[in-house]
C-alpha cells in the first residue's frame, strides 16, 4: 500500500509526516492523518486496506503501529473545489497532502489499472520498487510533460474526430491526471473533441462505443431505489451533478439513454476549465425510454426499449431523484439540468429552484454567455443594449432564456420595468413571429414575448419588418440564415451582429464564411460550434465561439466556494459582465467578442469570484467569513492535475 504524502516508509511502523508528533492509536477528533503501512521487511504491504478505527485489528501483532499527526501546515480545510479535501487529491499547495480516515490503495499491477493514481511511465525508480511495479513497466522513466507531448502527437494522427473522442475517453479511464493536464494545456484543440460538436456524434453512437460506466444510469425500473443507487457511487463528497433525460441532445433530438455523453463531457469541463475536483463530479442519466424509433430498433442501444414516459410517472421519478440527491449529498450540491426537452426543462427549473441549488445550462448558461458576447459587441457597434433591437429564430429553452436575461440586463441598466424592456426583443418559432393574436395557443414560456404586431410567417419578412440590429439563431435548424436574410441585415446595419448558436456544426444557422461573405465582411459573428478563420477580400476574419464552457465551469465554482444554497438571476448577470471584461482591445481589433480559451482557467476564476461576491451580497452564501480576495481564493481552490509523489 502506498502513502499519498511526501514522507518515507519506516520499518515496522505506520509513519506520517512528522515523527516528532507520533503518538498511540488514539485519534484526535477529526484531525487529518497521513498513513503508510509497511511489513516486517520494511516494504509497503501489497493491496492493504487500512481503517484507522480498526488498524490494530488489521495489522499483524509482530508489526508495531504508530500514527503520526499531519504537520500543522497540512491542516488546510479548504482545497480543490472549496470543500474539505478528505480524499487528499487536490490540495492547492501540492507539497502538502492529506489522506482520508480510511484508505485502500492498490499496489503493483492493480495500481496501473487505477486511473486515479496511475502515472504510467512517470512512476519513478523508487516508486516502482516501493509499490511492486518493477518489471510491469518498461525501464524508461518519463515526465508528465513528455507524456502530454506524446499523447498530443498520437491524437493528431487520428483523422476522424470520433476516434479522437474515443482516445480521450480511454485516457480518462486509464490515467485521470494525464487526461486533465492534456485537456487543460490544449483546450482550444481538444474542446471540440470532448464536447460539441464531436460529443453529439458520440451520443448517437454511444451504444456501439460504450466500454465502461462513467456515471450513474437511473431508469424507471429503479423507482423506489434511487437513494440506494446513489450510495452505490464510490465517491461520497459530490459537489456537482449534471443530469439529463436525453430527450433533446444538442440539436439532435431524443437520444434516450445514450445522452450520457453530455453529462460526462460537461463534467470533464467542470474539472479542466473550472477546477472542480473529478471525484466531486457525478454524471447521471435518467432513462425513461425514448421515442426515437432508430434507437429502439438498434440492437446496440443500451437503454430501456420503450416509449418515453411522461406525466405523473415521469414527475414522480424526477422528484424521487431530487429528494434522494439532497438527502445523500446535502443542501449545497449543485444539480445542473442538461438537454431536457422544453416542456420539462422549464417546469423542473421552476419547481426546484426554490428548494435546491439548480441550474439549467441550456436556459441560463446559454443566456449568460450570449449576453456577455453582446456586452462585448457594444464596444464595436456602439450604444447600449437598450439602443438595440433583438430578433431570435427559435423560441425554446435557449431562445427564451437568452431573451429574458437580455431584458433583465436592460432593466438593470435603465431602471425600466421588465415588461417594457421585453419589447426590445422579438422571437420567431415554427409558426412565425410570436404576437399577441397567438397568445391563447402559446406555451407558457413564450407568452411574455407576444407583442403587439401583425402576424408574420416568413422569416425574411420578419427581418425586414422588425429591422433588428442583432440576429440570434437558437432554432437547431441548419442553414436557416440564408443569403437573403444576411443581406437584409446588412442593408440596414453598418455592422450587423449575427449569432448562429445551434449545435452541432451541421445545425448551425449559417457558417462563418457565409456570414462574412454575404455581409461583405461587415458582420460581427459568433457561433455555438467552432469555425476556422475566413479570408474575404484579402482580410482574415476570426470568429468567436459563443460556447457555454465560458460560463458554467466558473459559475459552478463560484457557487461552491461561497457555499451558495440557491441560484439567483443576478448571479447570471454578474457572470456575463465578468466574462465581457476579459475581452481586450487586441481581441476587439481581431473582430472577437469572446476571449480565447487559452486563458480559460483565469477567466473562470474571475467569473467564480464575481458569482461568489453576488452570493454573499444576496445573503445566499453559507461559507463564512467571505474571503478578502475572491479571485485568489477561487484560484487556490482549483484542482491541479500535477502528479503526486508516492513513497
UniProtKB/TrEMBL annotation:
Keywords, sorted A to Z: Metal-binding, NAD, NADP, Oxidoreductase
SMART domains: malic, Malic_M
Cofactor(s) it depends on: Mn(2+); Mg(2+)
Binding site for a divalent metal cation: 338-339, 362
Protein's UniProt keywords contain Cytoplasm: no
Example of a GO MF term: NAD binding
Gene3D superfamilies reported in the protein's UniProt record: Malic enzyme, N-terminal domain, NAD(P)-binding Rossmann-like Domain
Family recorded in the similarity comment: Belongs to the malic enzymes family.
Summary of the function given for this chain in its UniProt record: The chloroplastic ME isoform decarboxylates malate shuttled from neighboring mesophyll cells. The CO(2) released is then refixed by ribulose-bisphosphate carboxylase. This pathway eliminates the photorespiratory loss of CO(2) that occurs in most plants.
Name of the featured protein: Malic enzyme
Source species of the chain: Lactuca virosa
Amino acid at each position: 500500500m502506498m502513502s499519498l504524502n511526501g514522507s518515507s516508509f519506516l520499518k515496522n511502523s505506520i509513519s506520517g509526516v512528522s515523527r516528532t508528533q507520533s503518538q498511540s492509536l488514539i485519534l484526535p477528533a477529526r484531525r487529518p492523518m497521513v498513513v503508510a503501512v509497511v511489513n516486517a521487511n520494511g516494504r509497503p504491504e501489497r493491496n492493504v486496506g487500512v481503517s484507522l478505527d480498526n488498524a490494530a485489528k488489521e495489522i499483524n501483532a509482530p508489526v508495531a503501529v504508530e500514527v503520526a499527526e499531519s504537520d500543522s501546515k497540512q491542516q488546510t480545510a479548504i482545497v480543490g473545489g472549496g470543500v474539505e479535501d478528505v480524499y487528499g487529491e487536490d490540495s492547492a499547495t501540492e507539497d502538502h497532502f492529506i489522506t482520508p480516515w480510511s484508505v485502500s490503495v492498490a499496489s503493483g499491477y492493480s495500481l496501473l489499472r487505477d486511473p486515479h493514481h496511475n502515472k504510467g511511465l512517470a512512476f519513478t525508480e523508487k516508486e516502482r520498487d516501493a509499490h511492486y511495479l518493477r518489471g510491469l513497466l518498461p525501464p524508461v522513466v518519463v515526465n508528465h510533460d513528455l507524456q502530454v507531448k506524446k499523447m498530443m502527437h498520437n491524437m493528431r494522427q487520428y483523422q476522424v474526430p470520433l476516434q479522437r473522442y474515443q482516445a480521450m475517453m480511454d485516457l480518462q479511464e486509464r490515467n485521470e491526471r494525464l487526461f486533465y493536464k492534456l485537456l487543460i494545456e490544449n483546450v482550444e484543440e481538444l474542446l471540440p473533441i470532448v464536447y460539441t460538436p464531436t460529443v453529439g456524434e458520440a451520443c448517437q453512437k454511444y451504444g456501439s462505443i460504450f466500454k465502461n460506466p462513467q456515471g450513474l444510469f437511473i431508469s424507471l425500473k429503479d423507482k423506489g431505489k434511487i437513494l440506494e443507487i446513489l450510495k452505490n457511487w464510490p465517491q461520497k463528497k459530490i459537489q456537482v451533478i449534471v443530469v439529463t433525460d436525453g430527450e433533446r441532445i444538442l440539436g439532435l433530438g431524443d437520444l434516450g439513454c445514450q445522452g450520457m455523453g453530455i453529462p460526462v463531457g460537461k463534467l470533464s469541463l467542470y474539472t479542466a476549465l473550472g477546477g472542480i475536483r473529478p471525484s466531486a463530479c457525478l454524471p447521471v442519466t435518467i432513462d425513461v425510454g425514448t421515442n426515437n424509433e432508430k434507437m429502439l430498433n438498434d440492437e446496440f442501444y443500451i437503454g430501456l426499449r420503450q416509449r418515453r414516459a411522461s406525466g405523473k410517472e415521469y414527475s414522480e421519478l424526477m422528484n424521487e431523484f431530487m429528494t434522494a440527491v439532497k438527502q445523500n449529498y446535502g443542501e449545497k450540491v449543485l444539480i445542473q439540468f442538461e438537454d431536457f426537452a422544453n416542456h420539462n426543462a422549464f417546469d423542473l427549473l421552476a419547481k426546484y429552484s426554490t428548494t435546491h441549488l439548480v441550474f439549467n445550462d441550456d436556459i441560463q448558461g446559454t443566456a449568460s454567455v450570449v449576453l456577455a458576447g453582446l456586452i462585448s459587441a457594444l464596444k464595436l457597434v456602439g450604444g447600449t443594449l437598450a439602443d438595440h433591437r433583438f430578433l431570435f429564430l427559435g423560441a425554446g429553452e435557449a431562445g427564451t432564456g437568452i431573451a429574458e436575461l437580455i431584458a433583465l440586463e436592460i432593466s438593470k441598466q435603465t431602471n425600466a420595468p421588465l415588461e417594457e424592456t421585453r419589447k426590445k426583443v422579438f422571437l420567431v418559432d415554427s409558426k412565425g413571429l410570436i404576437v399577441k393574436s397567438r397568445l391563447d395557443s402559446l406555451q407558457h414560456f413564450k407568452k411574455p414575448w407576444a407583442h403587439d404586431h401583425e402576424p408574420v410567417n416568413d422569416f425574411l419578412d420578419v427581418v425586414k419588418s422588425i429591422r433588428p440590429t442583432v440576429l440570434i439563431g437558437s432554432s437547431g435548424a441548419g442553414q436557416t440564415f440564408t443569403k437573403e436574410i444576411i443581406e437584409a441585415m446588412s442593408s440596414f446595419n453598418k455592422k450587423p451582429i449575427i449569432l448562429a448558436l445551434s449545435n452541432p456544426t451541421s445545425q448551425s444557422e449559417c457558417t462563418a464564411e457565409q456570414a462574412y461573405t454575404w455581409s461583405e465582411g461587415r458582420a460581427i459573428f459568433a457561433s455555438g460550434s467552432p469555425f476556422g478563420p475566413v479570408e474575404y477580400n484579402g482580410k482574415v476574419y476570426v470568429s468567436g465561439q459563443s460556447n457555454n464552457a465560458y460560463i458554467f465551469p466558473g459559475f459552478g465554482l463560484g457557487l461552491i466556494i461561497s457555499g451558495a444554497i440557491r441560484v439567483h438571476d443576478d448571479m447570471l448577470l454578474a457572470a456575463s459582465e465578468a466574462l465581457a471584461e476579459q475581452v481586450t482591445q487586441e481581441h476587439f481589433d481581431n473582430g472577437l467578442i469572446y476571449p480565447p480559451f487559452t486563458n480559460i482557467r483565469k477567466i473562470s476564476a474571475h467569473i467564480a469570484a464575481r458569482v461568489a461576491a453576488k452570493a454573499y451580497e444576496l445573503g445566499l452564501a453559507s461559507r463564512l467569513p467571505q474571503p478578502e480576495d475572491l479571485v485568489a481564493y477561487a484560484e487556490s481552490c482549483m484542482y491541479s492535475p500535477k502528479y503526486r509523489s508516492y513513497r
